[in-house]
Amino acid sequence: MKINQERLWTRLHELSQFGKQEKGGVTRFSFTEEERKAKDLVISYMKEAGMMVQEDAAGNVIGRKKGKNEASPAVLIGSHIDSVPKGGIFDGPLGVIAGIEVVQTMNESDVETEHPVEVIAFTDEEGSRFGFGMIGSRALAGTLQSEHLQQSDQDGMTIAQAMAKAGLNPECIAEAARNPETVKAYVELHIEQGKVLEYAGHPAGIVTGIAGPLWTRWTIKGEAGHAGATPMNQRKDALMAALNVIQYIEEETKKYPNAVATVGQIDVKPGGVNVIPGETTFTLDLRDIDESVRDEVEAKIISYAQAFCEGQGMEIEVDTLQRVAPAPCSDEIRAVMEEACRAMGIDLYSLPSGAGHDGMQFNEFCPIGMIFVRSKNGISHNPNEWSSKEDCGIGTSILYNTVLHLAK
């Protein structure tokens, strides 16, 4: 069955208008007016596709297609519509719009399934606003705790406060949790965000597993002082100490073939042109498909940083923002995806995901599967992020055949 590629493409670009930046890219954080407008558009698409729609206690938008046996567990299709600062239009939204297209194609073709099919636009996958991601998928999986809602953004507003401002009740967050018995499987379509498929010449690929992100915030406390009156050998410069640790992070991580480390934020206090930095805070995003390897790298970095700062007479604190275990994809779902590719005449190609995705929250909840679509030049989290209309259509067609098999 052919999906409507033009409709898919049009909706992707319509959705990109909310949070669109003058100089390119999309900035659409969770619990904002831009996100609300985007959610409302997604809801309209779901209703047009013939789904019943609800918004749960976490702000997840859920569209449901009834199954012949409504009591049977549902097949979930999910992704997110929030973005990083000045991000692209495909990361997240493609998976949501593709899921809606799958259901709409079924309904237009009078295709009935034994199991219900649900499409979910999850709240805050990226974590860009609060430094804590996958809020909606954690809530649905039942792993989001009330203390997580005390994470705050750069303006000091907590997740709980932002939820309340958006009309949600943070005290009811537990109501978003699903009973695992009501879910048969979870599948997600996403752009690759890397160059593997492009280099291999494949429009789409089947994901073998998702690397687990470990986010930490590091604070080094030295001593502020006069930039002109303090000799170099008498300084406790917190920024220079941080740069030394960051350099070690770069060198140590390169020793491991699948490990990646990113320092994405740095804050220097007091921040004067003529003042020696007395405190420096930076974030570290550390990932590997193997949890033991990731944790080994983390331990080496912490050990080095503590020894270095102690030798310089400085203090160091490391706070864990999130620690997510890597998630292997289901062999059974991968086999279904492989069969879908064969039926479409698409060469099989498998690859791991270095990026984290909502699906990893369901690893111990239900079987999960992921499909990647080729990314031009491997660019993502960037206004130049791009996947072709044809590749998006191919990925959505694989998703359609996969969901059809799982739901029937």
Automatic annotation (TrEMBL):
List the keywords (alphabetical).
Hydrolase, Manganese, Metal-binding, Zinc
Cofactor(s) the protein needs:
Zn(2+); Mn(2+)
Entry's cofactor comment = Binds 2 Zn(2+) ions per subunit.
Peptidase M20 dimerisation domain segment(s):
211-307
So which residues are the signal peptide here? none
Gene3D superfamilies noted in UniProt: 3.30.70.360, Zn peptidases
Concerning Pfam families, the annotation shows: M20_dimer, Peptidase_M20
Residues annotated as binding Zn(2+) 2 are 91, 126, 381
- EC nos: 3.5.-.-
Specify which residues bind Zn(2+) 1 according to the UniProt entry for this protein.
80, 91, 190
The UniProt GO MF terms for this protein read:
hydrolase activity, acting on carbon-nitrogen (but not peptide) bonds, in linear amidines; metal ion binding
Q: Which InterPro entries match?
A: Amidase_Cbmase, Bact_exopeptidase_dim_dom, Peptidase_M20, Peptidase_M20_dimer
Give the record's subunit note.
Homodimer.
Q: Which family does it belong to?
A: Belongs to the peptidase M20 family.
Name of this chain's protein: Hydantoinase/carbamoylase family amidase
Annotated organism of origin:
Bacillus aerolatus
